[in-house]
Amino acid sequence: MGLETLLTQDLEYRERRTLENNHLLDVSDLKTYFFTKRGLVRAVDGVSFKINRGSVFGLVGESGCGKSVTALSILKLVPDPPGKIVGGRVLFEGEDLLQKNEKEMEDIRGGKISMIFQDPLTSLDPIVRVGDQIVEAIRAHTDLNSDRAWEKAVKILGEVGIPDAEVCAKQYPFQLSGGMRQRVMIAIALVTEPHLLIADEPTTNLDVTIQAQILTLLKDIQSKTNTSVLFITHNLGIVAWICNELAVMYAGRIVEYGSTKSVFNNPLHPYTTLLLKAVPRLDMCSKSVLESIEGDVPDLVNPPLGCRFHPRCPYAKKICSSIEPPMIETEEAHYAACLIYDKEKWGSS
Amino acid sequence: MSRLKDVKRLFFGEASEFSIIVDHLKSDKPALFGLGVILLLVIMAVFADVISPYDPNAQDLSRRLEPPSWEHPFGRDEFGRDILSRIIHGSRISLTVGVVVISISLLIGTALGALSGYIGGWVDMVIMRIADIFLAFPGLLLAIGLTAVLGQSIINVMAALAIVNWPGYARVIRSQVLYIKGLDYVEASRVMGASNARILVSHVLPNSFAPIIVLATIGMGWAILAEAGLSFLGLGVQPPTPSWGSIIATGRDFIFRAPHITTIPGIVLALSILAFNLFGDGLRDALDPRLRI
After folding, report:
1. CATH code for the domain of B206
2. Which chain B residues have a beta carbon less than 8 Å from that of A136?
3. Residue A327, domain member (yes or no)
4. Which of A52, A200, B223, B254 has its CA 20 to 30 A from that of B94?
């Protein structure tokens, strides 16, 4: 029961599809640093992952681990100053986004890559009618005249499950509920038929029933349009439900990477293992105590040397504080950045 | 009572922002008084030729300094001209100066303030230091200096007042833009591929305008007073064109023999400025959502 049950749902099918397709997005060795007065913050430090066409990729981690900065780096929207993408490559449909100029990026943003945000309450302009905000997105990327764009806006509002779309299009954001606003955000993001949708914690600020509705909506639309999704969240339950593959981030690095099934069934990195143990489950005995991970998230100005997780890791040895663990393929297409899986180094220490 | 109505309308979604503001103003008596006086002034200025009982420049030296009577409710000035007619015609100058000065200030202030706040960096630095320089001068003194240099004409008065006035608008707009450009919906529209120009014009500026509307209303009062001040000093409108400031100035020599020449236009001037301030205050309350619920 619990996570396993969620997992078995069409996971087999999703996995098969993942293998057949080629990569839509290929991020390799992405480094985004913030140059602050306190010092250099390595918010994203050598992150690599690939997203297949039509798949949902989860990027999981606690607050401040660099998930959102990774997403903003893909769109080249890291606030500069103080942020800067200092290295790496972001291949999208075979082209390196980091080499593109601002004009070319404006075409890609909202065109081929769209994004939905955490907080639907503040992500809509309060003094512009909902329909006009969708029209703006349409007209930025197509040649439709304003009447046709308005029709399209009303149509997409209906598709994201808003009853009485025509009335809604004429309303202002403050007249809509949080769930409705998130639907509008999704409508804006999808109206240009993007190839990649980045969803940055799209349900964090909604209550649980609305969360489920929004996630179901996202999943439906995803399977209908076969859009790839980069799903950023700290909620492991959502990941298990919606993602084909996932990467677990810790302090600016990816520590584990693989298909959802293999990561949940057989977590390799100690951090992932502990995270999964910290999730309450329906089949748990009511008296049992939830485990927590000792210690704090490291300060990214002064991250620990070697493996960044070692100060909190129950298995850590001396060697962990001196060697940065590489990504090691322990199972087929399942990687973990932990020295435990490097037999030579681990055994010799 | 009306507060409760607002809440209802907000939640049941049948009211626009605008109608909520109108509702608020309706229950604000001082603001309504202000609005009434402002409308009266506008009517006076527009229909001056029709309303005014006499030609404002027609002299009758045999009846100079005549006190108020039924025939001439505000009396006659030192050339025997009808003061009521002169005040009615003077409202044209006052309102024109107010509108033009505020428009120019708004234009310059909004453009520079928005650039300053949106671009930031050295552009912000340069624009704000220039604004600081203008703010460091006492406003009216700078205007006096400028009209003295540029020559005495109504155009120069307006130019001088606008030059003195724009930094205030620039500062307010800048701080609004700084705040709004960091909000999620601006980021969201950037993510959707909007260019900087588009974001600034269609999202940041419209959202920055509420405090500026209030500032501009109160600024109208200031501009009218400043014009009267400059005309009083003889730097503004030249005789015989009637202006409230110049009527007061000419009456100064006869303050004991014919006090109505100075006091009546003075009261009109004070009333007008009060009206703009009251209406501005009312607008501020109506536009501030924190005071609403």
Report:
1. 1.10.3720.10
2. 189, 192, 194, 198, 202
3. no
4. B254
Instruction: Give the structural domain span for A135.
Output: 124-193
- Residues 77-106 (A) with a CB less than 8 A from some CB of B: 77, 106
Contact A127 B17 (CB under 8 A): yes
What is the three-state SS of A7-39?
HHCCHHHHHHHHHHCCEEEEEEEEEEEEEECCE
Concatenated DSSP letters of A50-93: EEETT-EEEEE--TTSSHHHHHHHHTT---TTTEEEEEEEEEET
- What is the predicted pLDDT for the residue at B88? 93
Q: Do B192 and A106 touch (CB under 8 A)?
A: no
pTM of the model: 0.75
B245 dihedral zone (left: phi>0; alpha: psi -120 to 50; beta):
alpha
For B253-274, the pLDDT digits (tens) are 888 888 888 999 999 999 999 9
Between CA A8 and CA B107 the distance in angstroms is 63
The amino acid that residue B62 corresponds to is S
**Which of A115, A122, A175 is the closest to B183 by Cβ?**
A122
Instruction: Tell which of B185, B202, B204 to mutate to test the A interface (max A CBs under 10 Å).
Output: B185
Q: Give per-residue pLDDT as tens, A61-118.
A: 888 788 888 988 998 888 877 888 888 888 888 888 888 888 888 888 888 899 888 7
